Amino acid sequence: EPEASYLINQRRSANYPNIWKNDFLDQSLISKYDGDEYRKLSEKLIEEVKIYISAETKDLVAKFELIDSVRELGLANHFEKEIKEALDSIAAIESDNLGTRDDLYGTALHFKILRQHGYKVSQDIFGRFMDEKGTLENHHFAHLKGMLELFEASNLGFEGEDILDEAKASLTLALRDSGHICYPDTNLSR
């Protein structure tokens, strides 16, 4: 009787022909958007967005929203030069006025975009939105858009930035309690 170590279950090589034909592969490579007209249209639209990013405006929130949307869509590589130039001019002009806004959304968006692009922005700009205990004032919890933007901005904090750490903790609790963030009841969430 042979030993168990010699009993190897031999499997045949799985070199069987594919039951699918290459028709599906060929169809997935064909696109009606490959033509010159669509390439020209995309180039035209890219140029229009470059103009919007480069345009001078007093509405910085709109400019930051545009830059943020372009980044979130994964198209920022087409506009790197224009974004850098726009942010350089904003950072030079607005560095002193950044903490004077009463708008949590605009301030958080401003902070987030500048931090994402490597500009030095102090966490102290959020001090005006905190109470004397160092927590986010309750009336800001009514503005979901500002809360979400501040939450995203708080993820860009450096070690030791207490205002951002406190904002993140209080926003996490507020968003969880309001039902805007749904945590599944699993072992992973514990």
From TrEMBL:
Task: Indicate the secretion signal residues.
Answer: none
Cite a single GO BP annotation: terpenoid biosynthetic process
Under the heading Gene3D superfamilies, the entry gives: Terpene synthase, N-terminal domain
Pfam families, A to Z: Terpene_synth (PF01397)
Where is the Terpene synthase N-terminal domain positioned along the sequence?
19-172
Q: Which InterPro entries match?
A: Terpene_synth_N, Terpene_synth_N_sf, Terpene_synthase-like, Terpenoid_cyclase/PrenylTrfase
GO molecular function (one): terpene synthase activity
Q: Where on the tree of life does the source sit, at the highest rank?
A: Eukaryota
UniProt-listed PANTHER family? ALPHA-FARNESENE SYNTHASE, OS04G0344100 PROTEIN-RELATED
The protein, known as: Alpha-farnesene synthase
Species of the source: Pyrus x bretschneideri (Chinese white pear)
